[in-house]
Design a protein that fits this description.
With 489 residues, the chain is an alpha/beta fold. The protein has 2 domains: 71-247 and 255-336 and 465-475, Spore Coat Polysaccharide Biosynthesis Protein SpsA, Chain A (Alpha-Beta Complex); 341-442, no CATH class. It is 46% helix and 12% strand. The chain contains 14 helices and 14 strands. Strands 1, 2, 3, 4, 5, 7, 9, 10 and 14 form a 9-stranded mixed β-sheet that branches. Helix 2 links the parallel strand 1 (81-87) and strand 2 (124-128). Mean pLDDT is 82; it is low at 1-30, 116-124, 129-144 and 451-489.
Length: 489
């Protein structure tokens, strides 16, 4: 017996409707894919246009980027100068800095005596943090020299002070301070710098702050200080040429100069009071002493992670002018010894440079769209993406040629931007977790920082901890100092 399997006859209309529905779904998928592809192509185009526009801005910026005047163009009359060097655990790095600095001090003296052959020598004071304050010497006193170096040993756990004494020997121009314990509400570097200023010769008209990883050219002090007179600025940061080793440093460090050369209208930023329009670099910072005091000095930026930028904002808040200039010819800086040091340094401060998470996320997105997405599209065969990649590399090349960077490294610009955004994420993660630290000290910021931060205190009337609510330098006793020529036992 054969079983009969019942069947169901599907009406033709129903079958046709199903086919139509299936076609509609397929068409919808195609339309959705086309829409997504169109959005992606549009985003690649937008990124390419943005990269090209920023590169044009970079080239225009580099044309007006200031550089220190040649020695022959520096004013004959030199101001009284105080060079200030804060140190913490720098025993393995400070010797090249000091050796070059002493030579630059010699050259500063020579320039002053040559330019004013029949005039009295111009006094110069140099400060390095180590906690000892010597007597103020009169120009008429026997053996008086116009240059003084003050060094601050800010709680070092190594032989930093010993290395300083060995390098400077019995040079009577050098004084060493032993830093006071870090008070509540202060971060380490602002505190060391504030002590140095208090210990410096009160006649100093110009202050030069220097980091231990900076090596000055012989004429660096002459040319850098002359910038104040030749530009009319109150604060200038001659940006040193960055010395890099290893793959990660070669990817990330060139973005320092590239970032402000690309995004900041330099001449406008010098005189704009807007907090978001400014760039500074504490590796080598030259400031008019009177303006520094009126702005509140480092007391006004005591809790700032980026104390150099905060100091510039404080100067602008009282009507002063300042910003970065090209210091490639006058200084070099090797910021980090290895990749671990670079990661730690960027983790400590990058969150402050980019601002709060919404702003940081927006800026990171712009960078990725302008410099990473076009490169990725290029690899997928997009000619528009290739143009965007070329535009980004062209901008990096322009900056590298001006600042002494490696030209070949510019080809990896998309990878540089990816590395930077990864470090930004790590920095904000550490900030939220409260694990930020530097040189064995926790980093607990006291004020808001980043693009658009106004740097105002709790009452909104002035810089946090501004001079209006604090004793000024004249009201504060100088730290105990040691004159190296008479080293204590």
């Amino acid at each position: 017996m054969t079983a009969t399997v019942p069947t169901t006859t599907v009406p033709t209309a129903v079958r046709g409707g199903g086919a139509l529905a299936g076609g509609a779904l397929a068409g919808g998928a195609l339309a959705g894919g086309a829409l997504a592809g169109g959005v992606l192509a549009g985003t690649v185009l937008a990124g390419t246009v943005l990269a090209a526009a920023l590169t044009v801005h970079t080239v225009l910026n580099l044309r007006v980027l200031r550089r220190p005047p040649a020695v022959g163009d520096c004013p004959a009359s030199q101001p009284v100068l105080a060079v200030l060097l804060p140190l913490r655990d720098e025993a393995t790095r400070v010797e090249p800095c000091l050796t070059a600095l002493l030579t630059a001090m010699d050259r500063y003296e020579e320039h002053g005596s040559t330019a004013t052959a029949t005039a009295a020598a111009v006094p110069v004071a140099v400060a390095v943090a180590d906690d000892t304050a010597g007597p103020v010497r009169s120009p008429a006193a026997p053996g008086w020299r116009p240059v003084e170096l003050v060094v601050c040993d800010d709680g070092s756990t190594d032989d930093t002070a010993g290395v300083v004494r060995r390098v400077v020997g019995g040079d009577p121009r050098v004084r060493i301070l032993t830093g006071d314990p870090l008070p509540a509400g202060w971060l380490g570097k602002p505190h060391a710098c504030a002590q140095l200023v208090r210990a410096a010769d009160p006649r100093a008209e110009v202050l030069v702050f220097l980091d231990a990883d900076v090596v000055l050219a012989p004429d660096a002090l002459v040319r850098s200080v002359a910038l104040l007179a030749t530009t009319g600025l109150d604060l200038v940061c001659p940006y040193p040429r960055q010395v890099v080793v290893g793959v990660v440093q070669r990817l990330v460090q060139p973005l320092l100069q590239w970032s402000w050369a690309t995004t900041l209208p330099l001449r406008l930023a010098e005189r704009s009071p807007r907090p978001s329009l400014g760039a500074a670099n504490g590796q080598l910072l030259v400031v008019d002493r009177g303006v520094y005091d009126r702005a509140g000095g480092h007391d006004a930026v005591r809790g700032a992670v980026l104390e150099d930028l905060a100091l510039l904002r404080a100067v602008k808040a009282i009507g002063g002018y300042g910003g970065v200039v090209d210091g490639t010819e006058v200084a070099t800086c090797a910021m980090y010894d290895d990749t671990a040091g670079l990661v730690a340094g960027y983790t400590k401060s990058l969150w402050a440079a980019f601002g709060p998470p919404p702003a940081a996320g927006a800026l990171a997105t712009v960078l990725l769209v302008a410099y990473v997405l076009p490169a990725a599209a290029m690899l997928a065969g997009s000619p528009v993406g290739a143009l965007g990649y070329a535009a980004g590399v062209a901008g990096r090349l322009a900056v590298a040629r001006r600042t002494g960077g490696r030209l070949a490294d510019c080809l990896a610009h998309p990878l540089s931007v990816l590395a930077l955004t990864a470090l930004l994420g790590r920095s904000w993660q550490a900030r939220r977790a409260g694990t930020l630290s530097w040189r064995g000290r926790p980093v607990v910021p006291a004020v808001a920082e980043g693009p658009g931060s106004d740097g105002l205190g709790p009452d909104g009337t002035g810089p946090a901890g501004s001079a209006a609510s604090r004793p000024g330098p004249a009201d504060t006793a100088p730290a105990d100092t040691e004159q190296v020529g008479r080293v204590r036992p």
